[in-house]
Amino acid sequence: MLFRTSVIASAALALVATMVEAHSWADCVDWQFNDPSKPGWRASDGVCKGYARQYPVNSGVQFGGLDSYSPSRHYQQNKDDFIPCSDHIHGVEPGAIETRQNPISKAYGGRFGAMAKATAGQKMCVRWPAKNHAKPNEPNNPVWINMPKQILTKDPNQSGFSSANIAKLNYKNCNQIDGDTDHTPCGGCFDVPADLSTGTYVIQWRWMLNQDEYYTSCWDLQVTAKNGAPSTAGGLGNSTSVFADLAEDN
Ligand SMILES: *[C@@H]1O[C@H](CO)[C@@H](O)[C@H](O)[C@H]1NC(C)=O
Ligand SMILES: *[C@@H]1O[C@H](CO)[C@@H](O)[C@H](O)[C@H]1NC(C)=O
Hints:
Elements: H1 2-21, E1 31-33, E2 46-48, E3 116-119, E4 123-129, E5 143-146, H2 158-162, E6 165-169, E7 185-191, E8 199-208, E9 214-224, H3 242-248
Parallel strand pairs: 3-9
Antiparallel strand pairs: 1-2, 4-7, 5-6, 5-8, 8-9
Bound molecules: 2-acetamido-2-deoxy-beta-D-glucopyranose (NAG) (2 copies).
The site of one 2-acetamido-2-deoxy-beta-D-glucopyranose has 3 residues, from helix 2.
Organism: Linnemannia gamsii
Keywords: Signal
Signal peptide: 1-22
C-alpha cells in the first residue's frame, strides 16, 4: 500500500514536472484571421496556411500538445552551442528536426504542413501555445522574429539569426482560456521586409523564458518580390528565384 502510494505520488510529481517544464514553439507561421477586424488565435478565429519545418499536421494531437509528442516540437537551446534550429540531437531539450532540408521543400507537404508564402512587405501572423507562461506572474520576454534578408545556401548560426531581428512580439498576446493556461493560444504579427527579392528565406522564432533559456522554431518562407521593388537580396541575381532555389538543392 505504501509502495502503491509512493508510485502514485511520484507519478503525480512527474506530471507536475512535465507541466512546469513544458515550453513553447511556433505552432503556425502563417495564421490568417477569418475576420481581420476581429483578430484572434482560437481555432474559430482563423486558419493556418504555413508551418515550421517538418511540422506533423496529421498528429491528431490537440493544440499545444506537441511537446508530449515524439519527436517533441519543443526545443531548448544549449548555451554551449545555441544550435539555432533543432537537429533532434543537441539541446537541453532536443526537439524535432527543424534544420534546413535538401531540397528545402522536403520539410513540407504530405505528413508535414505546407511551406509559408508571402509577398515582400506583407503582414504575417504567427501563433504559439501559452504553455502556462502567459499568466500574470510569469516573465514576459518578447518572441524574436529573426529573418536574414539574404537568400542563403545554408542556415546561419545563432549570431547570424540574432543580428537579423525584424520584430519583437508580445508573448502574452493571448486569448486566455479560463482554467487552461497551458493550451491558451497566443500570437503576433510582423511585416515581411519590403525590399526582398523573390526567393526562399529562413525565419526563426526565438523566445527566452528565463535568462539564457531559449526556445526556437525555424521555417522557410517563399517570398515574391513586390512589383517594381528594387532587388537588394544577396547579389545572387535572378538565379535565386523560388524555383531555381528549390531546384538547385536537388
Ligand atoms: C557565426 O557565423 C558567422 C558568419 O558565418 C561567423 O563569422 C561567426 O564566427 C559564427 N559564430 C560562431 C559562434 O560560430
Ligand atoms: C533579371 O530579371 C530582370 C527582371 O525580370 C531582367 O531584366 C534581367 O535581365 C534579369 N537578369 C539576369 C541576369 O537574368
